[in-house]
Amino acid sequence: MRASHGGHRRHTKSATYTDGSGNQIANVGNYARYWANNANVPANGQSVSDAQMVAMLQSGFDSGALTYDASTLYAIFSAGTVNLGGGFGTQYCAYHTHGTVTINGVTQSVLYAAMPYNYAYPSGCTSGLTAPNGDPAADAEVNALAHETEETTTDMMGTAWYDRRGYENADKCAWKWGTTSTTSSGGVWNITVGSKDFLVQMNWVNLGCGGCLISLSRAGLGAGGLAEQGWIESVPHARTTAAPHRRSPAGPQARRPAQNFRVSPGFMTTSRRSFLNAARTCASVASAGKVP
Ligand SMILES: [Zn+2]
After folding, report:
1. Residues facing 196 on adjacent strands
2. Distance of CA 92 from the midpoint of ligand 1 (Å)
3. Which residues of the chain have pLDDT under 50?
4. What is the pLDDT, as a whole number, of residue 76?
5. Separation of CA 235 and ligand 1 centre (Å)
6. N or C: which end of the chain has fewer CB within 10 A?
7. pTM of the model
């Protein structure tokens, strides 16, 4: 288990999103701690329900192995074909959601991500490209974790940022890598974090017409900047066997409130005003011939 809310320039894209009060979402985060919970380890193929995952988190809070924090994403990793959530490999590769725990007698929401072992289903849940760090399982997990972390940042409770198709920010760029480079051993990567190269899918930048980018540089700020970086809106491509995360009608993420205003797949907006502003900006860029 890893409890984190990763911080990196990649996270600056979160600053293109605002909370319900119009404030920019914080674009910082810190890795918290790692807890190897070796109690009642599920067998290969065994399904683990959300209730069981929340119960495990509760046990960690109760024992002190984990510290509760409302803004922390608790990422739950498993081995082999352990089926976190019951649809791993067929319906999704990972997902984020929330549960309810009791901390010092007080009911609290806890954010968590089910992170099963993606390399168990390489055709559906990995890039299929040579791993940049020589560890295809870990490299695949990094990509999925980035996806779920960014979605948690902008849609913590499944009630905030998503488009009319129900896609959260990372869904809109799922399995899209942008410009990649190759290591001397053939590994494919698109971003360097610290001293290591990783292949991480792009994420949605909520500016102008929007777009998928690997990171948001100063030059990328503004609709023209995005367009000049070659961004165009396109439909996320479907994987043959599994989506990056659960979009089950019965799932927690399927409960969408009516106040969100979803008009075009190209925009993620929470109000009519922000949609109109985004549409206006996008139209002016398009008329300048920069966006198809
Ligand atoms: Zn997703």
Report:
1. 193
2. 9
3. 2, 4-12, 218-267, 270, 272, 285-292
4. 95
5. 14
6. C
7. 0.73
Q: What is the pLDDT of residue 56?
A: 95
Give the Å distance between the CA of 88 and the centre of ligand 1: 13
Nearest to 174 by CA among 204, 152, 198: 204
pLDDT score of 155: 85
Query: Each residue of 188-247: pLDDT tens digit?
Result: 999 988 889 999 998 887 765 677 878 765 334 444 334 333 333 333 333 333 344 443
Q: What is the total residue count of the chain? A: 292
Domain boundaries, the chain: 2-287
For residue 287, the CA-to-ligand 1 centroid distance in Å is 32
Residues within 5 A (CB) of ion ligand 1? 151, 170-171, 244-245
Distance of CA 288 from the midpoint of ligand 1 (Å):
33
- Write down the pLDDT at residue 161: 77
- Dist. CA 47 → ligand 1 center (Å): 20
- Separation of 202 CA from ligand 1 center, angstroms? 12
**Cβ(237)–Cβ(137) under 8 Å?**
no
Q: What is the pLDDT of residue 213?
A: 79
Q: Is 153 left (phi over 0), alpha (psi -120 to 50) or beta?
A: alpha
pLDDT at residue 150, as a whole number: 87
